[in-house]
Amino acid sequence: MEYLQKNYKTVVFHVLFWLAFIAYTGADNGRHHHDEWSFSLRAEDICNIVIAMLVVYINLYLLMPLYYGQQKYILYFVSIVSLLLAGGLISRFFSWQIWLPRERLADRNSDEPTEFWIFARIVSDAAEIFPVLAISVLIKLMLDANTREKKLREIEKEKFTAEMGLLKAQINPHFFFNTLNSLYSLALARSGQSAAVVLRLSDLMRYMLYEASANTVLLKDEITYLENYISIEEMRFADRLDLSFQYSGDIAGKSISPLLLLPFIENAFKHGIEDSSGWITIDLKVIDHRLYMKVENSFTAPAKAQKPGLGLPNAKKRLELAYPGKYELHISQNDDIYSVELMIQL
Prior knowledge:
Number of helices: 9
Helix content: 55-70%
Number of strands: 7
Shape: rod-shaped
Number of domains: 2
Structural class: alpha+beta
CATH topology of the largest domain: Heat Shock Protein 90
């Protein structure tokens, strides 16, 4: 019963397959004229159907796993030929032992040969089994190919989930490290805004823990998340930051991979005003099912080379995983302006 519950589709398929074969055999026997159709199933036909089933299942559950599945094709070919001949021999035996004597009793003038070892008859009986065997092999190969494709899709999905989770795990500590730096700076300055930063930070943590674990989030929630982050940075750099942040378009019902836009904005704060005053402009707009984001910031080349951060490389990998072939990213630096232009098909 448990097997039937787990493999009911396979059982139903096998039942339908043999019912179709039985219907074809009976219809072929019952057809007398081109414009008539009737069904006739003889005892001999039932015997041959059982022999065909025996041959088919020996091949499916013994020979194919043993030889074909192990890529031993020559052995598989030899075993298939041997199996067909064995089926032909069994069919010939029943015909010689049971059906021919019955025909001779019914028709005294029958000229059917009485010898058992008639090679042409054995081959003919084996050839009658071959079509159903060939069809079963073809169907088995198609089903196996479909199963392999499903498994590959599942593996790819698991790989995608694992890689995306790893990249998110890299983003979280990276983001919190920078945010805690902001909070530390405010605390050193004894700013009254420290409590507001803690409140914003708790909102960000709640979002990252309970919302961003999904594959996609609502775009409006992601924008709210960005607003909270930008508010924290505004409190930190209020005296030396010229900031413009705006979004437009129909964002209702749109979804996006979570935490995907933050690295580009975070990068603007890190390299635009961390060591001096500067400006940042962030423009988000949705047109149809496309999201356009442009981030520009003032840029001053550092006196000494800095170690590359995780943010942008991480964001590029996540874009490739979440939106393969569905995004465009252009990053440029002209004189003292650093620019990021991103388009995503939502």
